[in-house]
Amino acid sequence: MNAGDGANARDDAAKAAVRDLRRLKAKRIALGVLKPLGVFVPVLLIATFVTFLLRHISGLSPAHVKLGENATPELVQQVEHEWGLDRPFVIQYLDWFGGILRGDFGESWWNGTSVTEILASRAVISLSVAGLALVIGVVGGFVLGTLAALYPQSFLDRAITAVATFISVLPPFVVGVALIAIFAVTLQWLPAAGYVSIEDGGLGLWLSHILLPAVALSLDTVADVARQMRVGLISAYRENYVTGAIVRGLSGPRIFFVHVLRNGIGPTLTVIGMKFPNLLGGAVVTEAIFGLSGFGQYAADSALRGDVPAVQGALVVSIILVVVFNVAVNIVLNRVTPAAARGV
């Protein structure tokens, strides 16, 4: 065997190793997507079935929503037949669930409009507020947590920890009222209520209407992200590989971004995945304070009216949004953090 054959063999072995590594990474990414989806399917089935069962047990009917006190047994039977509610429960559930798979959430008992169309228009408002609140929470928490970790046990660290503790216990509705009083009533910098889409008012007007509710909703996320960033980064700084990097003379920024951040950000990403459902849930109170006709307000109003199709549609959309977001967080977690990529 000559030198050329040996070099070709080494090249082939190196290429095979690269291919194996790529397949391993693709497998890990696929598992990071499939695991949450494996949870999503049974959760969706159980949640929708239980919701349908509760409606069946409660005795709610579109006849009572439409007719009110004028509902007679004959009229109730007629309306329920029109809506197909006199069929067996399982048939009703399968028919409704089949509509969900097609993107059809049925019609509202209250006014007969398409629940899908209403949810789509309302979800834009809620996702705008929740999305901006998430960005504020992540960016603000990342900055505060990083500063606290870079200067542990210092006055700055203690001050950031105190601020994070304080804002974490502030209810969003209290913060919302305070923001309206300061920035909308006193200073008149921002509108106190309402929503304007980007198509109707442009980016500036859209942002001005969702900024205050987003800030009110984001403080808890800022506090949690800051605390997790601080703990994760300080823990990573104490690892042996960081000590080795310092001994080798690597620069501070390289040590932070290459070694510390990648290994210390894992808990923070996990917390971000857990905060998104809280932001959607907190939107109900925030939207009421700021006069936003969003997803949460629509779900609350529909529940008070007994509009079962609207409530069921809101539940399903919430589950889908939460699962999709957590799938994205898991993908980022597997790509960024070495421990998660190894399945640790």
Verbal overview:
Helices cover 81% and strands 0% of the residues. With 344 residues, the chain is mostly helical. The longest helix has 56 residues, at 3-58. The two termini are 44 Å apart. The chain has a domain at 109-341: MetI-like fold. Belongs to the binding-protein-dependent transport system permease family. It is a multi-pass membrane protein.
In short:
This is ABC transporter permease. This protein is mostly helical and 344 residues long. The protein has helices spanning 3-58, 62-67, 73-82, 89-101, 115-150, 155-168, 172-186, 198-237, 240-247, 252-264, 266-289, 295-305, 308-336, 338-341.
Shape, per Cα inertia axes? globular
Distance from N terminus to C terminus (CA atoms, Å) equals 44 Å
Q: Report the β-strand fraction as a percent range.
A: under 5%
Please, what is the average pLDDT?
82
Instruction: Please give the radius of gyration in angstroms.
Output: 26 Å
Biggest pleated sheet: none
Low-confidence stretches: none
Q: What is CATH's topology name of the domain at 109-341?
A: MetI-like fold
* CATH second-level architecture of the domain at 109-341: Orthogonal Bundle
Give the helix level as a range of percent: over 70%
**Strand and helix order:** HHHHHHHHHHHHHH
Number of helices: 14
The level 1 CATH classification of the domain at 109-341 is Mainly Alpha
SS elements, strand count? 0
Instruction: Give the helix/strand class.
Output: mainly alpha
CATH homology superfamily of the domain at 109-341? MetI-like
Membrane topology: Multi-pass membrane protein
InterPro entries: BPD_transp_1_N, MetI-like, MetI-like_sf
Subcellular location: Cell membrane
Transmembrane segments: 29-54, 123-151, 163-191, 203-223, 279-299, 311-333
